[in-house]
Design brief:
Number of domains: 1
Oligomer: single chain
Order of helices and strands: HHH
Radius of gyration: 11 Å
Largest sheet: none
Shape: globular
Number of strands: 0
Distance between the termini: 22 Å
Structural class: mainly alpha
């Protein structure tokens, strides 16, 4: 994954595909950043965990195919 700051900017600009978003949030969860950034990131990370897409440790559990 490229630089996380660039990924965050691309995410905010709605420029990432779904698999890139999942990879970004997996990285944020693994690093602990998901819980220190603005609330949206923590809520989204928790939703991805609750849906079984990413483990609480930041492992991608379910690959999502773009529509």
């Amino acid at each position: 994954m490229k630089d996380i700051a660039i990924d965050l900017i691309s995410y905010e600009a709605d420029e990432l595909e779904i698999d890139e978003i999942v990879a970004l949030f997996a990285t944020l969860i693994r690093s602990g950043m998901a819980w220190t950034l603005q609330g949206h990131y923590g809520r989204t990370a928790q939703a991805l965990i609750d849906e079984g897409i990413i483990s609480p440790e930041g492992e991608v559990l379910e690959e999502l195919i773009p529509a």
